[in-house]
Amino acid sequence: ASMKFFLQYVGFFCAFFSASFLIISTWTDCWMVNADDSLEVSTKCRGLWWECVTNVFDGIQTCDEYDSIYAEHSVKLVLTRAMMITADLLSGFGFLFLVLGLDCVKFLPDEPLIKLRICLVAGVMLLLAGLPGITGSVWYAVDVYVERSSLLFHNIFLGIQYKFGWSCWLGMAGSLGCFLSGSLLTCCTYLFRETSSGRFHSAYSLRKGYSSAATVVTNVHLPSSQTATSKMYAVDTRV
């Protein structure tokens, strides 16, 4: 039981931080950051929804949102948005299911098998969340790196060159955390499912034995008048 609680709590904290990292990564503005050391006046970051310029002297930040979501955007931007939003939803719902499946939460306390299945659903959702999260963040990072390398290879300088920033790293970390927490939860479910099933069946058999014993005791302590009446009724029925 202590190992089960340990795995659940490790999965809980890992799922919490992983879902938080994915959500923060999706809605922050530093997926790309300028990598030109000669530009010391400001730092420019690009996210999935807007880009911001921060003055290094006074710290003033100015952000410009991209055009409408229906406007034409690059395939990299549109697909990364879709994959990260999908990862956010799956990891968020997976974390909520996990909270309901914890043994310390007073939800269906007399149904250990149902709580284990809830943990299994949470683990599967977290595993699924890690797939679009890692795909979107890694693909975005590789695309930025390839674009920068091709410009350097052809000696093309556009004024600002980018490398992938901390938001992209946060998306990768959150995705890997989802894989880890999902694996822990699914392994925890399969590891302790048979134990819980055995306890459930033994408890059911024990309750059934108590019920049978109570019936026997009740029949034994029937008053003699009721027993005689039952015999007379049986005789009359046969006649």
Give a nutshell description of this structure:
It contains five helices and five strands.
Describe the protein.
One of its GO terms (biological process) is paracellular transport. It is a multi-pass membrane protein. This is Claudin. It holds the Pfam family PMP22_Claudin. With 239 residues, the chain is an alpha+beta fold. The protein has a domain of 150 residues: Butyryl-CoA Dehydrogenase, subunit A, domain 3. It is 69% helix and 9% strand. Strands 4-3-2-1-5 form a five-stranded antiparallel sheet. A hairpin with a 5-residue loop joins strand 3 and strand 4. Helix 2 runs antiparallel to helix 3 and helix 3 packs antiparallel against helix 4. The longest helix has 55 residues. The protein is elongated. The C terminus is likely disordered.
Structural class category: alpha+beta
Q: Measure the end-to-end span.
A: 63 Å
Architecture of the domain at 1-34 and 77-151 and 159-199 in CATH?
Up-down Bundle
Strand order of the largest sheet: 4-3-2-1-5
The count of DSSP E runs of length 2 or more, i.e. the number of strands, is: 5
Question: What is the radius of gyration computed over CA atoms, rounded to a whole number of angstroms?
Answer: 31 Å
Strand content: 5-15%
Form type: elongated
Helix content: 55-70%
Poorly predicted residue ranges: 196-222, 224-239
What is the residue-mean pLDDT, rounded to a whole number? 75
Largest sheet: 5 strands, antiparallel
Oligomeric grouping of the chains: single chain
Which CATH class of the domain at 1-34 and 77-151 and 159-199? Mainly Alpha
Number of helices: 5
CATH topology of the domain at 1-34 and 77-151 and 159-199: Butyryl-CoA Dehydrogenase, subunit A, domain 3
H-E string: HEEEEHHEHH
